[in-house]
Amino acid sequence: MKSLRHISCIAFVFFVSCSTSDDSEVTLLEDDSDSLLDCTNPSSIFTINLDPTDCDIDIETELGIVSLYSESISGTTRKITINGVANHLVGEFPNSGNPSTIAETKENYTMTMEPELAASVTNGQGYTMAIYFSGVVGEPYTAEYFVGSDGTINRDWNITTLQSERSLGLDCNNAHAQPTGRYHYHGTPSNYVSLEGIDGSEMVKIGYAADGFPIYYKYAYADDGVTLVDLSSGYQLKTIERGGDGIGAPNGCPDGLYFQDYEYVDGISSLDECNGMFGKTPESDNEYFYVVTDNFPSSPLCFSGTPDSSFSFK
After folding, report:
1. Which of 11, 135, 229, 272 is deepest in the core (most CB within 10 A)?
2. What is the rounded CA–CA span in Å between residue 306 and residue 302?
3. Is the distance from CB of 237 to CB of 42 less than 8 angstroms?
């Protein structure tokens, strides 16, 4: 998900506290600074693991449980059951950045089979974003936030996992486990991609989003409907200071530590702000679909349709 950080921003203190979501909450303490910074050429700490060989644990064998992805159709509703046990190799858990152990977490979801674009997008925070055919869910957001020197937690500044400054214990699938044992992806599931042999020779569906639209991994048809292209998202680092004082909100130049360091730039990608687009797929001459990319945010961050309530944390 490498950086040159201003000397006024190098003092960091991390601590773990209770969180209202399943992820352990890690908050970040920054010092104050009144210095003016030139952020026109931001240095990125984005990192993502695309090496499937970094994972060597057969979690099905280790748990003695077979991976489950099951779906049934009733009218216009798709019902999906998973158990959170990946059908591919995973990394070692617990690890230095994540104290949790992977466990079976059986979950049931429903979604429409006739998704439509909504009048406005829905932010993905507060939702399980997607279900993958590997039996694992996707949740890009975290329960890690900025905390100022006065101890105030600012939930408007959410730390992303796809960065090199603070390890949150991701494995080669850009995934980790919650305290409940729930294994979930934050980005490209590299070993699953390798298992499926996805190499750009065809367009491959890997799951469904909570609003019912399909999800494909990075390769999609160009406008000619024949050529497959490797897609990237339209997100870039902002080129102005964060604007905080280091006490109530972070200061310094955006570098990719926070989701809010990025902005969607219209016109630089075929993908919209939710990492989706209309186009030809193996199932349709023209339909809306999401794309998992290898650049930020990797996983879609929002819904273009209406997410089913079964995906809500509430």
Report:
1. 135
2. 10
3. yes
Q: What would the pLDDT profile of 1-34 be if each residue is shown by its tens digit?
A: 444 334 333 333 333 333 334 454 444 554 444 4
The two tokens of residue 290 are 């999401």
Contacts of 34 by beta carbon, 8 Å cutoff, 6+ apart: none
Q: Which residue has the tokens 């909100």?
A: 249
Reference 280, options 230, 234, 226; nearest CA is 226
How far, in Å, CA of 303 to CA of 69, rounded? 22
Length of the chain equals 314
Q: Which sign does the torsion angle of CA 88, 162, 201, 291 carry?
A: positive
Q: How does DSSP assign the chain, residue by residue?
A: ------GGG--EEEEEE--SSSSPEEEEEE---------SSPPP-B-----GGG--EEHHHHHT----EEEEEETTEEEEEE-S--SSEE--SSBTTB--------EEEEEESS----SS-EE-TTB--EEETTS-EE----S-EEE-TT--EEEEEEBPSSBSSS-----TTSEEE-TT--EEESS--HHHHHHTT-SSSS--EEEEETTS-EEEESEEE-TTSS-EEE---SEEE-SS-----SSSS--S---SSBGGGEEE-TTSSSS-TTSEEEEEETTEEEEEEEEE-SSTTSS--EESS---GGGB--
Specify the pTM: 0.89
- Nearest alpha-carbon partner for 297 in 1, 79, 39: 1
Domain boundaries, the chain: 7-311
CA dist., res. 265 & res. 108, Å (int): 36
Q: Which residues of the chain have pLDDT under 70?
A: 1-35
